[in-house]
């Protein structure tokens, strides 16, 4: 069976003086990643594709070091670009809720651009993997945008808040079902012809 493992990065140490793409993982990140993979077989995973942002690359490093899986950085897996400096959590949450509710927002990269980027990126990764199972490590907003597209329905704007740090979703590409983790039980649209 060909599977796509989607991982949201581990918890970050928020630094108001640094750009969010430079935030590093907390000291508890390693243990949280190990716990997340408890009961998950990684034997069939051929490669980890990851966002270049620090929190995703460090999460990919942990997984790669534990399970011996090769890593490949992909710029197209980065988070939706934000056009504002650090803001308090409540303000950030409000911005994201508005963005995911369909309001075009000068605070973020255009929603349609993000959707096209992430769908194209994952489709290209699956084509290149030639039927092998792969893992993708990315970010909460862009993952939510992708899953909204894959499921074909508007997930609740607050659904992104249900994603933990770290978190995992496993899609069986042969059946088209999200079989484990976040958004489990949903059937997805095919990403490449001939699958599902």
From TrEMBL:
- GO MF terms held by the record: phosphatase activity
Q: Which GO terms describe its cellular component?
A: cytoplasm
Tree of life domain? Archaea
Which Gene3D superfamilies did the record assign?
Phosphoglycerate mutase-like (3.40.50.1240)
Q: What is this protein called?
A: Phosphoglycerate mutase family protein
Database matches in InterPro entries: His_Pase_superF_clade-1, His_PPase_superfam, PGM_Phosphatase
């Amino acid at each position: 069976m060909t599977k796509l493992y989607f991982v949201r990065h581990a918890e970050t140490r928020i630094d108001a003086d640094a750009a969010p793409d430079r935030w590093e993982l907390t000291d508890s990140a390693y243990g949280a990643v190990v716990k997340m993979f408890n009961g998950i077989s990684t034997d069939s995973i051929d490669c980890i594709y990851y966002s270049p942002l620090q929190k995703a690359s460090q999460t990919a490093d942990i997984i790669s070091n534990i399970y011996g899986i090769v890593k490949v950085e992909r710029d197209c897996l980065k988070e939706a670009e934000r056009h504002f400096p650090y803001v308090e959590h409540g303000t950030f949450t409000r911005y994201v809720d508005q963005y995911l509710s369909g309001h075009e927002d000068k605070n973020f990269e255009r929603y349609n651009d993000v959707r096209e980027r992430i769908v194209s990126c994952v489709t290209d990764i699956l084509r290149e993997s030639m039927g092998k199972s792969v893992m993708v490590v990315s970010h909460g907003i862009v993952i939510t945008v992708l899953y909204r597209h894959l499921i074909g329905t508007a997930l609740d704007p607050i659904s992104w808040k249900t994603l933990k740090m770290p978190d995992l979703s496993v899609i069986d590409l042969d059946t088209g079902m999200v079989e484990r983790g976040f958004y489990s039980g949903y059937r997805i649209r095919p990403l490449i012809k001939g699958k599902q």
